[in-house]
Design a protein that fits this description.
Blueprint (H helix, E strand, L loop, with lengths): L3 H17 L6 E6 L4 E6 L7 H15 L3 H10 L1 H10 L10 E6 L2 E9 L3 H14 L3 E3 L1
Length: 139
């Protein structure tokens, strides 16, 4: 389980990593294992629509049990599968890096979605936040 304090720590560290890497303004969401929002922050200057992107990255990861990088590979190999998945989930899945699973002892605890820079940079910021909060990350 991810507590609210842990979710806030994940966000704080992810944002700090973004500043350290000189990334564009980030938006970061933390979801629990059921796909429900625990916490969200959008940095000054980030586009207002970034919540939905961050949530879609994290939502796809937690609901499918696979990080955004694996979803993207699956979409490239089997576009029909990811299109069907997105239909099942009401178009909420954004299958690209930046949706990172939060793990403990091999069990999914939730997911983090980061958006604002390149997808790979978003994922790197998410991993930093997850690990700083004492969890394992699957990016």
């Amino acid at each position: 389980m991810i507590t609210l304090d842990q979710a806030r720590a994940i966000i704080s560290t992810a944002r700090a990593k973004g500043r350290e890497m000189d990334l564009k303004p980030l938006s970061v969401v933390v979801l629990d294992a059921g796909g429900h929002v625990l916490a969200f922050e959008r940095e000054d200057g980030a586009a207002p629509g970034r919540f939905e992107i961050a949530q879609g990255k994290a939502y796809g990861a937690v609901m499918l049990g696979m990080p955004g990088s694996a979803q993207m590979a699956r979409a490239e190999a089997q576009a029909y599968f990811m299109a069907a998945v997105n239909g099942v989930y009401g178009g909420k899945v954004v299958p690209v890096p930046g949706g990172v699973l939060v793990m403990r002892d091999g069990v999914v605890q939730g997911a983090v979605g980061v958006t604002g820079d390149t997808s790979d940079n978003d994922a790197e910021a998410a991993v930093a936040g997850i690990e700083a909060a004492g969890f394992e990350a699957s990016a």
